[in-house]
Amino acid sequence: MGSKAEHDKLPLYRWVILVIASLLIFMTSYVQFQISSLSSLIIPQFNLDAVEFSSLLLAPLLSGVFLSIPSGVLCDRFGPRTVVGVATAFSVAAAFVRIFAGDYLTLFGTMVVLGVCPAVLQASLIKVFCVWFKGDSDFAMGIYFASAS
Asked: pTM for the whole thing?
């Protein structure tokens, strides 16, 4: 933790950043895990077997596997605001397209794209929080990860 004087000099805008990041991870986590609670509707509608349904639950995590390093590089080059904004646009669009999914592949694809926002957030936020929160970055990350659950 930093000193009291150092803590008082930090801009209040950091709380806006924390709230936006927390809302983004809450939104994407909610939409991602909504699939499991709707299993009794989704499995018969799409005629899914256990493996296909499990792949839908894990699909957003594939984005994290493949996009974490590239998104960190993009955040360094273009800034986190731009990259997270574009990633959020993709994830929100995927959430809306998912409503109209008529087959397994479309549903799977939208779930993969839905994971783009969390993948970019995870790759960039520790750096952002360290800049904005200084010694309180652990507190900010705690609030952020709590909002995901």
From this structure: 0.84
